[in-house]
Every structure is written in structure tokens, then in C-alpha cells.
Backbone:
């Protein structure tokens, strides 16, 4: 016989388990936890295995019946998706849930669940179990449409009717920097521009708004009826946006009409385009006056270039003399004067005629007095030898008010030397065409413009090149110390998974 200690008020009565005879605290089943688990399984109706469908194209998971959601590994969204796949989980009380670590490439996701359930007369049993999900690949509807190649609901056609394509290279870098091409189904390069394909009209409209904001351009909109359901009154259209960029580029020479010059504060008739952003930045090389022409202003009074960068000739600076500020006030025009440029009188000779007995020294006025020195090589347009079909240009030519040469920019040595010493690179929308662009003369001029103009490269992501530049002899007399270069602080690190893996393996060894 067992006696209870009446003096111990904190003691609790004990009983024997009806199955194994172990001393336990009283419960409605009169059984220990081990015997309860052998008799009852509260997770019997919950599956221990499941399947998740993953799209490799867009990296999304299928949420039945037809929704696709983006979920990171071991995230709350993925855990919620896994719990929704378990039938019978509502029969028990879920206490805790978490992931069990697995290899990311194993295509297995394990979830540890802790549940409470009522068994045999009201006893509460807690049980921990693991559910393993297998990740299967299934292409979503959006990726199916993308792979179809010919499926699109909206098309954005970007065109520029110009010989020089430097504006397109600049536009490509702007798109990459602002990730404006995220929702494109495909990008197709053609002779005069690019085609962007979209699944919805709203995404195409966003692209058009981006183009109008970063470049001076105009667009037209059209739509074509594909099908029509007369019973539900549903129309299926294909939309097309035709975007036209201004037909001039950086370093182009333009001849302005009198009405256009009047709106630009009396700037000179011959102007250089020294930068193209969301507006055209003009400078008069004879006075240093600058002006900006927006896209709306340009299309109201359009003008074309009379000389393109492909027509540049090399000249040697024989002498240069800066013009004092008091003399600059005598020039006509009431617009702003550039403080970054210095007006100067220059005497130049054609590089092909240097040293010849019949060489001719040409006098011209230039805005490059801050960088030109006697003996430098400079690129310019030979207007006296040009055959230009422009009415305003012919009037100036008949009046004898045209300069013989218009200097555009300084030449810093050979193009091959600058290319070999370039320790940076740019990314492209189509990596397959990168090698083709590298050999393109317009692309090389675009890279040189980025090196020479710090303000021009502010909207461009520049990356460090994987290959170190070739060593150059420090005593090389042809090396120009004033050659513009991009500093290391302006470059971004390019993520290369292969290189990172090689470095990690070398460290482990």
C-alpha cells in the first residue's frame, strides 16, 4: 500500500502507464508519451513529400492554380507556399515551421514542422516531422511567350537617320544603367536602330517615356487589330511606337537659320554640338557662346548637320594666342558664354602637308584654347574644301564670312595606343555583338569621348577590365602626359562568377 505524504503540499500524485508501467503524471489517456506515439500518429493525414514547380526563365514558383510568385530560398514567401501545398494541416495546430538546410543545387527543400494534436480523450500530443519537397522545372506562360520569338503585344522602334551612331551607343549605356530593358521580350538590332518587343502596352509606354526623358526625340503611336470577339466585345490589338532621335550627334557641325539663331539669343550661324543629353548642347567656336536646344524646339525648327565626324581632318597647331576677356565682349550675341572653354586665335597646317614647300598656314578662331599648345594635333573640318548642299551655308559662303577650318577636338596620339592602354570596359545589351562593336570606328570615338569629357560619362556605368593594360615605356617620347584617362574611383567591379570560383579554389589550395 502506498501512503500519501499529507505534509508535502507541493507534491503531485503519480500513476503508472497502462501500457509499459512507467510512472507518469495523470492524463486522460493514462499513457506515457512514448506509448501514445506508438498508438496514435497525429500527422497521419499530412503528406511527408511534395512537389514545387520552378521556372528557370523568370525564377518564379507556381502557386496553384495559375499564379507564379517570386520567392527567395528560405524566405517567408517560400515557406508560405510550401505550407499551402500540405493537405490535412488544418486538422492539427501548427506551432512552429522552419527550413532544414539543403544544398542549393540539390533540387530539394526540407521543412521542419511542429504540431499539436488532441488524442484519446482530450490529451494534447506534440510531434515534430519533416516534409521534403522536390523542385521540378516547368516553364511559365510568360516565358513560353518569350521563347515563341514571334509573340509580342507592343513594339518600340527606335530610329536615327544619321551616319554617326555615337548617340545609339550612349543610349545603350543609359538603358543599362537605369535597367529600362527589364520587361523586354527581345531586342533586335537593325540598320538604323533597335526594336524592343513587349508583352504589354504599359511596358512599351514606360520605355517610350524613358527615351523622351534622356534624349531629344519624338514618337508616333499606332495599333493594328488582330482579332475581335463580338460576343464579349473584346479586342486584341498590337501596338507600335515609332521613336525618332534627332539626326545629329556629338561633334557634328550645324548651320542655323536666322529664326533659329534669334530664339537662341543671337548665337552664330556655325555651331558645334559638343554634347547630346536630353537636349542638344551647341557652342559657337568663334565666340564661345553656348545654347541648349530641347527636343520640342528642334522638331519645331529642325536642322541637319553639314559635316559629320567621319569628315574630320588632322591639323598641326603652329601657334595659338588666347583672346582676352575685354576683346570677347565685342562679339555679337547675348547668350551665355562657356566658362569651360577658352577662346583663342590659332594658326594650323594640314598634317599631310607638314614639311612641304607649298604648305599653307591657316588662321582660325577656336574654343579649344585651354587644351591646345603649339605642336599639338587637332581634328577639324575643312570648310574651304567641303561640298555642302545647304541654303544657309551657301549664303554665308557667298558673303565670305566662313572660316577655312573649324577645329573640333584635340587628338591624343594613335587610336591603337589608346585602345591598348584602356583599363576599363562597357557592358552591352547583346554580348554577342560586343566584339563587332569593338571594331566599329564610331564605337571607338564614343569611348574617346567618355575619356575626354567627365560630365559626359556621369550617366554611364564604367567597369574595370579583366585584362590589365599593356605596359608602356615611361621614357616613350610619344606618350602624352595630358592624355585624358578614367580614374579607378570611377570604375565599378564587374562580377564574374568564373573568376570568383577560380580565386576561391586557389585560396583553398
Residues:
Amino acid at each position: 500500500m502506498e501512503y500519501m505524504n499529507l505534509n508535502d503540499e507541493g507534491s503531485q500524485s503519480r500513476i503508472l502507464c497502462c501500457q509499459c508501467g512507467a510512472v507518469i503524471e495523470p492524463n486522460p489517456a493514462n499513457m506515457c508519451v512514448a506509448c501514445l506515439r506508438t498508438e496514435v500518429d497525429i500527422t497521419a493525414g499530412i503528406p511527408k513529400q511534395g512537389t514545387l514547380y520552378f521556372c528557370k526563365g523568370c525564377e518564379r514558383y507556381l502557386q496553384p492554380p495559375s499564379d507564379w510568385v517570386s520567392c527567395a530560398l528560405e524566405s517567408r514567401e517560400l515557406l508560405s507556399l510550401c505550407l499551402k501545398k500540405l493537405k490535412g494541416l488544418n486538422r492539427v495546430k501548427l506551432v512552429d515551421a522552419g527550413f532544414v538546410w539543403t544544398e542549393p543545387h540539390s533540387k530539394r527543400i526540407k521543412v521542419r514542422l511542429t504540431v499539436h494534436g488532441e488524442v484519446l480523450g482530450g490529451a494534447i500530443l506534440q510531434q515534430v516531422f519533416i516534409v521534403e519537397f522536390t523542385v521540378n522545372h516547368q516553364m511559365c506562360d510568360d516565358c513560353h511567350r518569350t521563347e515563341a520569338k514571334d509573340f509580342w503585344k507592343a513594339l518600340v522602334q527606335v530610329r536615327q537617320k544619321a551616319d554617326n551612331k555615337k548617340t545609339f551607343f550612349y543610349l545603350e549605356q543609359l538603358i543599362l544603367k537605369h535597367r529600362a530593358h527589364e520587361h523586354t521580350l527581345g531586342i533586335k538590332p537593325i540598320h538604323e536602330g533597335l526594336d524592343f518587343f513587349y508583352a504589354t502596352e504599359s511596358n512599351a509606354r514606360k520605355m517610350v517615356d524613358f527615351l523622351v526623358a534622356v534624349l531629344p526625340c519624338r514618337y508616333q503611336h499606332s495599333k493594328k487589330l488582330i482579332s475581335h470577339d463580338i460576343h464579349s466585345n473584346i479586342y486584341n490589338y498590337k501596338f507600335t511606337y515609332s521613336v525618332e532621335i534627332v539626326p545629329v550627334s556629338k561633334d557634328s557641325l550645324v548651320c542655323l537659320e536666322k529664326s533659329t539663331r534669334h530664339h537662341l539669343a543671337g548665337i552664330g550661324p556655325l555651331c558645334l554640338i559638343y554634347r547630346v543629353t536630353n537636349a542638344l548642347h551647341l557652342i559657337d567656336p568663334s565666340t564661345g557662346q553656348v545654347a541648349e536646344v530641347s527636343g520640342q524646339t528642334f522638331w519645331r525648327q529642325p536642322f541637319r548637320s553639314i559635316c559629320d565626324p567621319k569628315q574630320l581632318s588632322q591639323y598641326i597647331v603652329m601657334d595659338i594666342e588666347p583672346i582676352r576677356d575685354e576683346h570677347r565682349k565685342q562679339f555679337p550675341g547675348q547668350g551665355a558664354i562657356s566658362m569651360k572653354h577658352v577662346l583663342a586665335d590659332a594658326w594650323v597646317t594640314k598634317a599631310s602637308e607638314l614639311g612641304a614647300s607649298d604648305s599653307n598656314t591657316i588662321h582660325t578662331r577656336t574654343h579649344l584654347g585651354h587644351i591646345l599648345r603649339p605642336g599639338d594635333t587637332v581634328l577639324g573640318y575643312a570648310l574651304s574644301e567641303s561640298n555642302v548642299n545647304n541654303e544657309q551655308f551657301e549664303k554665308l559662303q557667298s558673303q565670305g564670312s566662313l572660316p577655312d577650318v573649324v577645329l573640333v577636338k584635340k587628338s591624343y596620339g594613335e587610336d591603337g595606343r589608346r585602345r591598348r592602354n584602356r583599363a576599363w570596359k562597357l557592358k552591352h545589351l547583346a554580348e554577342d555583338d560586343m566584339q563587332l562593336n569593338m571594331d566599329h570606328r564610331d564605337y571607338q570615338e564614343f569611348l574617346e569621348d567618355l575619356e575626354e569629357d567627365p560630365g559626359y560619362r556621369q550617366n554611364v556605368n564604367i567597369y574595370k577590365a579583366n585584362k590589365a593594360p599593356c605596359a608602356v615605356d615611361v621614357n616613350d617620347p610619344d606618350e602624352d602626359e595630358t592624355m585624358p584617362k578614367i580614374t579607378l574611383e570611377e570604375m565599378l567591379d564587374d562580377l564574374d562568377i568564373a573568376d570568383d570560383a577560380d580565386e576561391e579554389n586557389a585560396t583553398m589550395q
